[in-house]
Each structure stands twice: as C-alpha cells, then as structure tokens.
Structure prediction request, 222 residues.
Amino acid sequence: MPRDLLRAPGHDRRKSLGFLAIAWMEYFCVHGPGQVVGMPVEHGDEYTFFVVDCYALGEAPSNNHMLYDSAFFSRPKGCDKSGLGARLALFEALGPCRFAGWAKGGEVFEDPWGLGFRYVYEPGEPMGRAIKAPVIQCMATEVGQVGNVFETIWYNLGGADDYADDVLPPLMGVPGISMNQEKVLLPKGGEIRVATASSAAKDGGRETFDPPPANRGGGRVR
Prediction:
C-alpha cells in the first residue's frame, strides 16, 4: 500500500517517549468491545513505530521538546485504529506522556498506584511525567454517537457490566475515577469527554489531546 511518511528535521526514534508509551499501554490496556474484548494488547512493528514517531522529541524546549502536535494514520476499516486511539487517550490521561528530562541510564518509572508497572530508562532516553489536569476530547458527529474510541476507554476504566473475573482491565485499579457514558473525571483533575465536532470552538480549545474520530478510514492524534 503506497504511503508518505513525513518527519521533522532532527527526528530520531531513540529520542522518543513512544517506547515508554507502548510499554505502558501493553501493560495496562486491554481490547474493548468486539471479537477480542478483554484480551491483552500487543502492538506490531507498524503501530509501535507510529507511536514512537508521534512522541519523538527534539533538543529545543519549545512545545515541551515535542517535534509534532498532530499526526495522521490511514488504514482500512478493522485495523484497530479506534483501539489505538483509545489506548493513546488513556496514556495521555493517566500515563507519563510528557518530557521530564533526559535519562543518565538506570532511572526507573513506576506507576503511582502500586499496580506493578515498572520501566527502566536507557542512557539518553527521555523520561516521562503525567499531565496535570489533562482534557481529552473524543470527537463525534453528535454527542449520542459515542463510537468505538470512547467505548474502549469506558471498558478499560471499569464502565462495563459484563467483565469475566479473569480478564479485569488493570486500569480498574486506579483509584478516584468517576464516569458516566459521556465523561470520565480523572483522579487529580482533568477529564475525558465525548464532544461534538464544534466543541473546541465553544470552550476555547483547552484540549491536551484529541484521539482519532471513530468509524473513519483515517485517524488523527493531537
């Protein structure tokens, strides 16, 4: 399948929070509603390196060292684009998704809830921190059209009624989350919400992340 891969000058996959993101998502996230509901997530090379490229960092401190503020990913229907968008949204909501300095090597990130996630940084690798009060918007044509992205977020955070005892999502162990079918309130401030296409214009654009719209051939992250 023909494709164009556009990168910023200075792009270096060794300087990316993407490897941390993939490790975090594969530890904490499961597949949402569908044929593989509740199953662990494994990202192949293509999806892994898309995430690595999205979180590429540079030396300049502007934009928190991030080289990109948007990305587009186009694949056929059924390729788990909505699932990837949901996992990125969860990482942006709860994970160490922003630059916190360059590692000397051996530094360790451990999840703040005591759920067992542990990541050891390599020398020169960027370290991550969580966003304070993130605002994550799941776009839809209208509020009632929640879509696969928010359904997967909802499932991972404990919103479903039909979990099997042996496939409970690890993120259900995060304390202090409150949610309904249109909004998730995060433990230390911030939210994940369903929004209509014009919502960004209404609230002044406070969003820290927009996962891809549901049910489209392409995808976008911000």
Observations:
- DSSP finds five helices and ten strands in the chain.
